[in-house]
Structure formats: structure tokens, C-alpha cells
Amino acid sequence: MELSNDTKNILGLHLPTDPRWVNLAEKSLEDILTDHAYCEQKATTTCISLIQRYSNKEKVVIDLSPIVTEEWGHFRLVLAELHKRNLKLGPQRKDEYVNALLEFQKKGGHIDDRFLDQMLTMALIEARSCERFKRLSEGLNDAYMQKFYRRFMESEAGHYTLFIELAETYIDKEKVRRRWKEWLDYEAGVIKNIEVRGDRIH
Ligand SMILES: [Fe+2]
Ligand SMILES: [Fe+2]
């Protein structure tokens, strides 16, 4: 299947998702919904942690508070979809993609650098999730599921922009741009090295 240009270019990601992924995902609905549910849960808890960690950054607190509710709402939507289909929320898996991204985060150094990397990690996860939801909304055969994923795609696109905006509020824009480029290069390498599996969102 040929990728549409906007999927190729989505959000600046360097490497588009392997086209085989959507066909694999279609065959393992219970697993992909389970994995998706945990992704939404992790997005919720990470936003709560960021609010706690950066309580002195007013925009972080104000802007991420509704995202907590929204991500938890996403979790509930996915859970409802599982139950509607008589499928079960399976166990949480090890998240190779996110773990690989966390390895690239600056752990020491100035607090601003750590803050920047935490915002950019979230922006990347949102961007890649958005790209994957777009692939599902375009590539699945079931019209209901296409619509189901389209809703998530739109929402995660907004979150991606928000995390970049939060970074730019507190850090010099040129510095954000330079580091974002490094993150995009690194993320492309991560995606390239991760096995294409239909039972996970990333
Ligand atoms: Fe979400
Ligand atoms: Fe999100």
C-alpha cells in the first residue's frame, strides 16, 4: 500500500510506519486495544507527574490538567470498546518504544534541559501515536473502527502541538528546534530497530 504524502510528512517524523503494521493490527484487535488502553493510562499518569514536578510552571499546570481528564477519557473509551466486543483487557507489556526514548533523555545537568527533554519525549510519543492512529483510520476495512481511531488521531495531534508549545514557553525557541531535530533523528532509529508487531501501538 502506498503512503499518502501527509502520512509521510506527519508532524515531521522521519520514518513512516511500516505499511504491514496496519494489516497485522487488524488481525489482533484484542491485543491492540489492550496495548492502546495502557498507552492512554500512561499518558494520564505522566501528565499528573509533570504537573507535580513542575508545579512552579503555571502554564504546565493549567494546560496539562485538562489533558489528564482527556487521556483518562481515552482509556475509558478503549476499555468500553473491549467490553462491547466481549474482549478482555490483557496484561500490560514492556514498552520497548517508550523505554528506548527514555534512554535518550538527559538525566543530569540543568533542570531546563531535563524539562525540555521531558516535553519533547511526550511530543514525540503523541506524534507517533497520532501517525499510527491515522494509519488505522485510513487502513482498516471496518468503517466503524476507522472512525473510532480518527477521533484519537485528532486528539493526539493537538497534544503533540501542546507539548512543543510548553517547551517553547520556558525554553529558547531556537534551542527547542535544535533539540527536536536530534529527537526526530533518534526516534527514527528506534522505530527502525523495533520489530513490526500487530499487538502494539508502537
Ligand atoms: Fe490519548
Ligand atoms: Fe495524548
Structure description:
The chain is an all-alpha fold and 202 residues long. Helix content is 75%, strand content 0%. It is built from 8 helices and no strands. It has helices at residues 5-9, 20-27, 29-53, 58-84, 96-104, 111-139, 143-170, 173-193. Helix 2 (20-27) crosses helix 6. The longest helix has 29 residues, at 111-139. The protein is globular, with a radius of gyration of 17 Å. Mean pLDDT is 92; it is low at 1-9. Bound molecules: fe (ii) ion (FE2) (2 copies). One fe (ii) ion binds at residues 40, 43, 71, 74, 155-156.
Please trace the helix and strand order, writing H or E for each element. Answer: HHHHHHHH
Distance between the termini: 19 Å
- What is the helical fraction, as a range of percent? over 70%
Rounded mean pLDDT is 92
Count, helices? 8
For the sheet with most strands, the description reads: none
Principal-axis shape equals globular
The low-confidence parts are 1-9
Q: Give a list of the ligands.
A: fe (ii) ion
Strand content: under 5%
Q: Given the helix and strand composition, which structural class is it?
A: mainly alpha
Radius of gyration: 17 Å
Number of strands: 0
Summarize it.
The protein has helices at residues 5-9, 20-27, 29-53, 58-84, 96-104, 111-139, 143-170, 173-193. With 202 residues, it is mainly α. Helix 3 runs antiparallel to helix 4 and helix 4 packs antiparallel against helix 7 (143-170).
What is the topology?
Blueprint: H1 5-9, H2 20-27, H3 29-53, H4 58-84, H5 96-104, H6 111-139, H7 143-170, H8 173-193
The protein binds fe (ii) ion (2 copies).
